[in-house]
Design goal:
It comes from Mucilaginibacter antarcticus. Its EC number is 5.2.1.8. It catalyses: [protein]-peptidylproline (omega=180) = [protein]-peptidylproline (omega=0). It is an enzyme of class 5 (isomerase). Belongs to the FKBP-type PPIase family. The chain is α+β, with helices and mostly antiparallel strands. It has a single domain, classed as Chitinase A, domain 3 (Roll), CATH 3.10.50. 30% of the residues lie in helices and 29% in strands. It has three helices and six strands; from the N terminus they run ααββββαββ. It is globular, with a radius of gyration of 22 Å. The protein starts with a helix and ends with a strand.
Length: 155
């Protein structure tokens, strides 16, 4: 009887561990969902030359600009058009001056990649924007599409 009970316990443990492995492989992260949506957007809009940064942002330098490039503590002057991937406009800002660290993380990562007078297309996954909480006019898990100009650096 003890043998059968031991065998039954091993069988139950073995089957339950197989189930855990199986379900963990099906789990998809928000970052993976965002990445696929961005790749689909790039393909659908024939955007060539977009670069994926290791952080997950995609960018394309449209106008390289000139040196200097901003650094994390720079005060920058930027102009940008901001939309969702479906083309709905979130906002247009002209000549905003602020310390780079006050922008969302995706912009903080991207802006130093171009010089003054530069322009870039920037696709920011939700985790480097407003994440799962969103903001007043941006729903949770929203991917942001910027056309971003670096007009100047104050320091």
């Amino acid at each position: 009887m003890k043998k059968y009970l031991t065998l039954l316990c091993l069988l139950v443990i073995g089957l339950s561990s197989c189930q855990k492995v199986y379900t963990s492989k099906l789990k998809v992260t928000q970052a993976e969902i965002d990445d696929q949506k961005i790749q689909d957007y790039i393909a659908a809009n024939n955007i060539t030359g977009a670069v994926k940064d290791p952080t997950g942002i995609y960018y394309k330098i449209l106008i390289p600009g000139t040196t200097p490039n901003p650094v994390s503590n720079s005060i920058v002057k930027v102009t940008y058009a901001l939309t969702f991937l479906n083309g709905v406009t979130i906002g247009n800002v002209e000549g905003q001056t602020a310390q780079l660290t006050t922008f969302i993380r995706g912009v903080q990562i991207a802006l130093p990649k171009m010089g003054t007078g530069g322009r870039m297309l920037l696709l920011v996954p939700s985790g480097l924007a407003y994440g799962a909480v969103g903001s007043s006019n941006i729903p949770e898990n929203s991917i942001l599409n910027y056309t971003l100009d670096l007009n100047g650096i104050a320091n």
